[in-house]
Design the sequence.
């Protein structure tokens, strides 16, 4: 379990999380959340658990469920993927945020908790973010958080019946202290007004990457 100020991350436990997680990322009303994810969408709850769990196990994903620290409501999920312990390298993926989590400081803190675990707890050397280069929201999120663009693998795969060019981003252990300092500074209460609106952007607090 990874605990922050506004969110808490727990390893996926279907008995505890299935119903709450499906409510925010499953069903027809949430189908678009999976547009750029290699799996999904999931219209019914039984398929959600069965298919996602089979994929998670087959691909070696370690899924984390995001909770609101105050209400305990589930907000979304993401996973550690492509875990290469011998190289000290791991990827964050299968990022599926419910609509209330998107573009919030809680989302940023959840991503920070994942990165802290990678670098500070595990001592890894490399943290990866990969996405369809047509997924402009994911590209912006990677750059905003502090990942550096490394290049695009053209015709990398076929995903849901169409070509996918995959954009690669990373943070290395040498870069992490400055990335972490910027995130910590941005998340301080002093950077938000009474309505919870940021006073300075993350890029303004951290500076260019």
Sequence:
């Amino acid at each position: 379990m990874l605990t922050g100020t506004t969110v808490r991350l727990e390893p996926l436990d279907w008995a505890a999380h299935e119903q709450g997680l499906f409510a925010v990322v499953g069903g027809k009303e949430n189908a678009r959340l999976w547009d750029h994810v290699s799996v999904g969408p999931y219209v019914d709850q039984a398929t959600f658990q069965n298919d996602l769990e089979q994929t998670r196990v087959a691909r070696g994903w370690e899924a984390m469920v995001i909770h609101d620290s105050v209400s305990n409501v589930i907000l979304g999920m993401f996973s550690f993927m492509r875990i290469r312990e011998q190289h000290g390298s791991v990827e964050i993926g299968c990022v599926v945020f419910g609509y209330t989590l998107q573009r919030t400081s809680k989302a940023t803190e959840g991503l920070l908790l994942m990165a802290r675990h990678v670098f500070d707890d595990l001592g890894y050397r490399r943290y990866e973010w990969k996405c369809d280069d047509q997924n402009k929201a994911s590209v912006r999120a990677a750059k905003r958080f502090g990942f550096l663009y490394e290049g695009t693998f053209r015709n990398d795969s076929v995903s849901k019946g169409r070509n996918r060019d995959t954009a690669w981003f990373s943070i290395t252990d040498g870069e992490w202290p400055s990335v972490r300092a910027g995130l910590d500074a941005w998340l301080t209460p002093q950077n938000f007004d009474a309505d919870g609106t940021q006073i300075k952007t993350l890029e303004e607090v951290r500076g260019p990457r």
About this structure: The first strand starts at residue 2 and ends at 3. The chain has a mean pLDDT of 96. The beta strands are 2-3, 7-11, 62-68, 74-84, 89-97, 126-132, 148-159, 162-172.
